[in-house]
Amino acid sequence: MAEKSSSGGGDLPASLEAAWGLRARPAKGPKPGLSLERIVAAAVDVASADGLAAVSMGRVAQEVGASTMSLYRYVSAKDELYVLMQEAAFGPPEPLSALESGASWREALAEWASAQRDRLHAHLWLLRIPVGGPPATPNSLAWWEQGIQALEGSGLDEGDKTSVVLLVSNFVRSEALLMADLAAAVTARGASPDEVTASYERTLKRLVDPVRHPGISRLLESGAMSEPDDPDYEFTFGLERLLDGVEALIRKMDGGVKSA
Amino acid sequence: MAEKSSSGGGDLPASLEAAWGLRARPAKGPKPGLSLERIVAAAVDVASADGLAAVSMGRVAQEVGASTMSLYRYVSAKDELYVLMQEAAFGPPEPLSALESGASWREALAEWASAQRDRLHAHLWLLRIPVGGPPATPNSLAWWEQGIQALEGSGLDEGDKTSVVLLVSNFVRSEALLMADLAAAVTARGASPDEVTASYERTLKRLVDPVRHPGISRLLESGAMSEPDDPDYEFTFGLERLLDGVEALIRKMDGGVKSA
DNA sequence: CCCTTCTGCGTATGACATACGCGTTATTGC
DNA sequence: GCAATAACGCGTATGTCATACGCAGAAGGG
């Protein structure tokens, strides 16, 4: 009754079907004047230019020279467009040079994390798309796979590899989100990044009570807040901690064999 | 020209002013028939019952027995309501028992992370509220402070303490978000959690190509996917890795002194 | 050659956030 | 006491969205 797909069978969620390009190609009616690719590309352009909030069906249609409702011939709902945008903007992973050169799992995983981070930074609006369940799109699977491969020489079992991959990619994502929020705050006011940081520090100094918040007070006094030039600092710091933690696990598992 | 606050001076963002309870108490007009507290409490109830998406100004007003527009006498915009909801639902931290009993920083930080996680799980909709910049509300600061205090005996410097606190709380948040998304998927379809997991595994098996995705294929074959009963597993796993990583840092910093 | 099926798209609906202004009610300065 | 003042509750209006529905025209298939 519901069998109509040209490959396989069963009912994938509509968005997945679209993402994998298994849309039933109808041979009957008039030729489509648009294409999913054009629509998604236009939506990505809008998001890159004016943020995810600017991506409305009307705006995308306008961008592509069609009427709002015609988009629904290609996309079942806006959520589906989101999925496709994510897939397109994130793209497939590049091969890891650390894997080809036979470097350690640690280098491979670090490279993998950085690559993922770069994609997110190139399209900060990706972080605003609500996540809808576990990964199942082509590129998501490809990245996942690559993460597992980075851990190939580690001696971890399959379940732990996936847990580590999940842990690292969650870290990358949440760190990027933090940066995106900061960038958004910067954009919202007209000020420069330094100006915003300084203003935040001033606000904190006003609100923090040395008695109730001795730790934060010490932080403010230490001046550690006024000089963090490197925007990569928190990322590098967190990633190192994470990798150290994974290393500890690996050592625990196989009793001291360095896999390099 | 803009000086009107009753304590301090300068212009806090409106939402912060509200969160810290420094709203100018007007002595002129009629008595307010509502209160911020009532409004926020109603909004929290709506979110808890029907999710954050159900929190509209109209709905909250109805819940509180007032008209939509009257809410704007108490709240300058919906974003402000969000901030207040977050503050109310998250609440202040309990004292850490690990701190009182003089346990290690590791136990303290683990307890802190778990406590934070519990709050998020009690109000999953908290994770849907878009984050607006760095923490500056009373409870946010209190949690931050407590995280720093958990690291008191660690020997880390102030900057590193804050980085670790940030790292851990980001981890807790992103793990909870993952669970929330899963729960949302479960709710969306009518099925049971096991049913959804099984369906996901079936989907993966259909989409994964053993040649392009050897790692994921191995995972699927290993059956590691079919039996994860413990919903805390990923949390515990990730937290252990993180704490191991922090431990490695501490050892590196002070040359081998165990702080317990 | 007509009938089925798909196309683009105009129109309509129903949420929603929020600006504006009006009548009303306390409080304060006289 | 009494008017001037400011805050209150809230009806109405505006503009933005996603999206359901249905129609008219295009293209293959029988």
UniProtKB/TrEMBL annotation, chains A, B:
PANTHER family from the UniProt entry: HTH-TYPE TRANSCRIPTIONAL REGULATOR RUTR (PTHR30055), TRANSCRIPTIONAL REGULATORY PROTEIN (PTHR30055:SF151)
UniProt organism field: Streptomyces globisporus
PROSITE patterns (UniProt xref): HTH_TETR_2
Keyword Ribonucleoprotein: no
Regions crossing the membrane: none
Pfam family, one: TetR_N
GO biological process: negative regulation of DNA-templated transcription
SUPFAM superfamilies given in the database record: Homeodomain-like (SSF46689), Tetracyclin repressor-like, C-terminal domain (SSF48498)
Protein name: TetR/AcrR family transcriptional regulator
Domain HTH tetR-type positions: 33-93
Keyword Mitochondrion: no
Keywords: DNA-binding, Transcription, Transcription regulation
DNA-binding region: 56-75
Superkingdom to which the source organism belongs: Bacteria
Listed GO MF terms: DNA-binding transcription factor activity; transcription cis-regulatory region binding
